[in-house]
Every structure is written in C-alpha cells, then in structure tokens.
Amino acid sequence: FVIRMRPSVVELLAMYNWEISPKAAEVVLWTTFCIQVIYSVVYYFVAIAALWSKRPKYYQMFATTCLCGVVGLVLLAYADKFNLPIFFVRLLAYIYSRFLQGLTA
C-alpha cells in the first residue's frame, strides 16, 4: 500500500473505468490500509490474550475476530486487494480457535 500507492490508485481507477477521481481512489486505499492496521493490532492482541489466559471466552473472541477478518478480506476484493493465502490462514485460525475453545471448556 504505502510504497506502491500511485500504481495502486491507477489499478483501482482502471478497475472501475475511471468513474471516481484519483483523490477519492487514494482516500479509499488509505482508509483500507488504516482499517487493516487497526484490525491487525486487535487480532494479535486478542490472540495473545487467548493464549495467555487459556479461557474459552477469549478463544471465542479470537474466533469472532478471525471471522471478521475473513469477511473483511472478501470485502477487500472490491478494492482489488484480495490476498488468498492470508484468507486461508485467517480461516484456519478461526477453525483452530473454535477447536481450542471446545478443549478449554
């Protein structure tokens, strides 16, 4: 995002046939980047809390966070920033956290 902002803006504009202004496309990409950074901080914080406490409630919170990340990645497909390996890792983390929640209950 940060290093390749100009090419990303051009790709986004080409994808939507230049129907939005370059400034609006850049705002969309920066907003997407900020949301991803905030999500990453929350994701790792909840994951560490779940691993540290080993309580079912925290594993449930982590599973919910993972599911939100999966849905968020599907929505990122509209900004042409869909990452298939990250999608599957988050989906696997969701499944594993549900499994660990069952083990700790």
Strand content: under 5%
Estimate the global geometry from the Cα principal axes: elongated
Helix-strand string: HHHH
Class by SSE composition: mainly alpha
Distance between the termini: 41 Å
Number of DSSP E strands: 0
- Specify the number of helices: 4
Radius of gyration: 17 Å
Average of per-residue pLDDT values? 83
- Biggest sheet features: none
Give the low-confidence spans: none
Q: How much helicity do the residues have?
A: over 70%
Structure described in brief:
The protein has four helices and no strands. The protein has helices at 5-15, 22-53, 56-76, 84-104.
What brief labels describe this structure?
mainly alpha
Write the layout of secondary structure elements.
Blueprint: H1 5-15, H2 22-53, H3 56-76, H4 84-104
What does this structure look like?
- It is a single chain.
- The mean pLDDT is about 85.
- This protein is mainly alpha-helical and about 100 residues long.
- The chain has helices spanning about 5-15, 20-55, 55-75, 85-105.
- The chain is elongated and about 55 Å long.
